[in-house]
Structure formats: structure tokens, C-alpha cells
Specification:
This protein is mostly helical. 68% of the residues lie in helices and 0% in strands.
């Protein structure tokens, strides 16, 4: 039987086109790749012959494809992906986009930009995808064991200054306020487009070390917000990818506290949808361990509240009470925040948010009376502009009232939640209403329950 002839390599036309666009010779590209490698501690000795082999279809091993993309990106003044240079090796498939915690800063920029570009450019991107449990655990492990990035400064495209960083921060602040009032359904496409256009160009620019750290911190915050909005629009698989990239960007910023926040406030809550409460508590504990105690009391309170939620879901009342008590004590130490020590991203976590988290825990433990107390406390303290949060609080309160068999009162409270959510585009809010409707199912003989559930049907549709 004749031997099968070896597969013929196809010329890498994508790489050829980018080299031409960058007005770069083969020798020039090899030199730039070697320089990028040296910055990452690699002794590379590529030459024009190496580039000729790549153009004939050979794929270099190890980190070389990432360095080629980085070198061309610097020359072009914009992010370049592995897909664009024809060296993705299948990694550009939607199933893998955004799930890696990159070992390098250049890789972190590439992965984040690839995620934003895919989100904007593919209408059915990750449609119907679910959360992958391993892709919650592995990035948190990588974050825990990865040392600080030695440098992030970059010499590439447009010069980036503090005013550019401040613009990203201001945009994020405005989006957070609008999200509270109107829900992620109105805003998520806007955030994705802003990240894919303005922010990706900033990351591909020229910035000093200090400005670079601040830029990565600001972009991590906006990326985490995009993840939260994906949760709010019923896209947990997409949210997971945004959270992983936010975690890596926070690492590049040198902000371990914010990395812990991404784990505890974002990824830990995503684990709830997996039905694996053990991961909820573990991610919150990883946040505490990774931050190393170098956080303010308010941040500590948030970490402990997330851990308490995991214990409640596991039915461990004792562990829940311990973590919840620690959260209350830590928040008391934080005071009113007037001392200015808290970072911007945690200042929203106040008595109302903590009461909200504890109401969830008591509900999950089947403790109706304390769940009701905490939900009422949260509602009393949440300002009017937190429309979605108040609607969720009303749904929690109504659930506790159902457990206490105060059915008519529960329907009245639930109706208030329905009215608030009529002004908000939030899948999360609808899920709370659906849960309330299911809790009321045993009481469908009551006219007030039938009337309330009839109001839910058009809302669910």
C-alpha cells in the first residue's frame, strides 16, 4: 500500500498582507520579534529566513505567534490577533475566545481585544452558551500563583496620557449610573462597541509605566462592568469571558484588591448559576487569599458576604453565620467612607448591599423571618436611582412573605417589583419574578395570586 504523501502547507497570505500593510521587511519583522521576546526574557534569534518559512505556512512553536502579533501590532499602532496573522491554530473559535488567563501582558491585550471584537462583530457570538466550571476555577488559580507583571509600558501607536485614562473612568461611571436605572439590556452593546473601538486603540498606544498601570486598571473596571451587563441580559457564558479578561487586566494594573473583587463579585455569583455552591465559597475565599489582606474593610466585607452566600447555598448555617458576622463587623469598621481610603469600585457596597446579600443567604437557608428583615433593611437604604436593585429587593421580600404564608402581602410587594421592572431591561429581574411566581404556585386558588401571576405572563414574554 502506497504511503500517504505529506500534507502540503498553505502559504500564509494573512501574514503576508499584514507585513505589507506594516511596510516591514522580513528582516525587519524578525528583528522586532526578537526585541519583543527579549522584553519577555526570551533569547530569540529569528532572521529573514525564519519569516520566509512562516510565510510558506510553517507555524512557530511556543509563544512566538503571540510575539509576532505583538511586533506587528506595535508597527501598525493597533492590536493584532493570532487570527489576523494566520496563526490562531483553531484558537479563534468562539468556544475558546476569552477563556484564557494570559501569561503575558501582550497576550492579555490580545485576548481582551479579540473578545471585544468577536462580541461586536458576530451577531450570534456565544448565543445560548453556558458557564464552564473549569474556566472559573483555572483562571482564579492562575491569578493566585501568577507574580506581578514587571512592566506594562509600551511604545506603539498614539500617545496615551492621564486625560485618556480619566475619560475611560468617566465613561464607566456614567454607564454604571445608567445601568442601575435602566438595566444592562439598554447599554451592553454600547459598552462592547466602546471597548472594541476607543479602548482597544488606547491599549495599542504608547504609554509610560505609571500611566499604563492606571490604564489597565480603568479598562479592567469597564470590562468587569460589561461582564455584569452580560449577566443582566441572560448571557452567562459571555459574562464569564469578560470576567476572566477583567481579572487578567487587573493583574496587569497591579491591583490585587480589584482582582479579588472580580472573583467575589463577578465569578463567584456566576458560579451560583452552575448549581455548584462549593465554587461560590471557594472563589470568594480565593479573593481573600489573593488580596493578601491588603484591602480596606469595605472590600473585606464584600468578600465575606460573597463567601457567606456560598455557605448558605450549601445549607451550612454555622459557616454562613460566621462569614456574615465577619462581613457586618468589617463594614462597621469601614464607617461612612468619608476618610477616602476606599477605591472607587467598592464605594457602592454599603449597608443596603450587605443587607441584600444577607437576605439572599437567609432565603437560601429557608429562614423566612431574617430574610424578610434583611430585605426590608435593604429596601429602606437603597436610593431611588438603584431601580433594578430595589426591584430585586422587593422580589426577595415577597419571597419571604410567601414563606410566612402572607400571600396577599406577597402579591402586593411583587406587584411593586413588576412595576419597577417595567422601566428596566433586565433578564436578572425577570428571573426573580419567575422565581416568585413559582413560589406562589401552591396558592393558585387564591384570586389575588391568579391576578398577580396573570400580570407576570406578559412580563415573562
Amino acid at each position: 500500500m502506497a504511503a500517504r504523501p505529506p500534507a502540503q502547507r498553505q502559504p500564509n497570505e494573512r501574514l503576508q498582507a499584514l507585513i505589507q500593510e506594516a511596510a516591514c521587511s522580513n528582516a525587519g519583522l524578525a528583528r522586532r520579534v526578537n526585541l519583543c521576546g527579549a522584553e519577555h526574557g526570551l533569547d530569540l534569534r529569528y532572521d529573514k529566513t525564519s519569516v520566509a518559512r512562516w510565510l510558506r505556512g510553517q507555524q512557530p512553536r511556543g509563544r512566538a505567534p503571540l510575539l509576532i502579533a505583538e511586533a506587528l501590532g506595535r508597527k501598525l499602532g493597533r492590536p493584532v490577533t493570532l487570527d489576523e496573522i494566520g496563526m490562531a491554530g483553531g484558537r479563534n473559535l468562539a468556544s475558546g475566545v476569552g477563556l484564557r488567563f494570559s501569561p503575558t501582558v501582550a497576550g492579555a491585550v490580545e485576548h481582551a481585544c479579540e473578545l471585544w471584537r468577536s462580541d461586536v462583530g458576530r451577531r450570534d457570538f456565544l448565543s445560548g452558551s453556558t458557564v464552564a466550571a473549569s474556566a472559573l476555577v483555572e483562571p482564579s488559580r492562575d491569578w493566585l500563583i501568577t507574580g506581578a507583571d514587571p512592566r506594562v509600558e509600551r511604545d506603539g501607536g498614539q500617545r496615551v496620557g492621564r486625560s485618556d485614562v480619566e475619560a475611560v473612568r468617566a465613561m464607566t461611571k456614567a454607564l454604571v449610573e445608567m445601568d442601575h436605572r435602566f438595566g444592562g439590556g439598554h447599554l451592553r452593546p454600547l459598552v462592547a462597541h466602546y471597548l472594541n473601538s476607543v479602548v482597544s486603540e488606547l491599549l495599542a498606544g504608547t504609554y509610560r509605566e505609571e500611566v499604563g498601570r492606571e490604564l489597565f486598571a480603568a479598562v479592567a473596571r469597564l470590562t468587569e462592568l460589561a461582564g455584569y451587563m452580560a449577566v443582566d441580559t441572560g448571557q452567562p457564558g459571555l459574562a464569564q469571558r469578560y470576567y476572566i479578561q477583567a481579572l487578567r487586566l487587573a493583574q496587569a494594573a497591579g491591583d490585587r484588591g480589584y482582582g479579588g473583587y472580580v472573583l467575589a463579585a463577578g465569578m463567584s455569583h456566576l458560579a451560583v448559576s452552575l448549581g455548584n455552591p462549593r465554587e461560590v465559597a471557594q472563589l470568594a475565599r480565593a479573593a481573600q487569599q489573593g488580596a493578601g489582606g491588603r484591602v480596606t474593610p469595605r472590600v473585606e466585607a464584600m468578600f465575606l458576604a460573597a463567601e457567606a452566600r456560598g455557605h448558605a447555598l450549601m445549607g451550612d448555617d454555622s459557616a454562613f453565620q460566621t462569614a456574615a458576622g465577619g462581613a457586618v463587623t468589617a463594614l462597621e469598621r469601614a464607617g461612612d467612607g468619608s476618610n477616602g481610603e476606599d477605591p472607587e469600585w467598592i464605594r457602592h457596597f454599603d449597608e443596603a448591599y450587605l443587607a441584600d446579600e444577607l437576605a439572599h443567604g437567609h432565603r437560601d437557608l429557608g429562614q423566612a423571618e431574617p430574610a424578610r428583615r434583611q430585605a426590608e433593611q435593604a429596601l429602606a437604604a437603597h436610593p431611588e436611582q438603584r431601580v433594578r436593585r430595589r426591584a430585586i429587593g422587593l422580589a426577595l421580600l415577597a419571597s419571604a412573605q410567601v414563606e410566612q404564608r402572607e400571600v396577599e402581602e406577597a402579591c402586593h410587594t411583587g406587584t411593586q417589583a413588576v412595576e419597577l421592572l417595567a422601566t428596566v431591561r433586565s433578564q436578572r429581574g425577570r428571573e426573580y419574578l419567575t422565581d416568585l411566581g413559582q413560589r406562589l404556585a401552591p396558592f393558585t386558588r387564591e384570586p389575588v395570586v391568579r391576578e398577580f401571576r396573570s400580570r407576570l405572563e406578559p412580563r415573562a414574554a
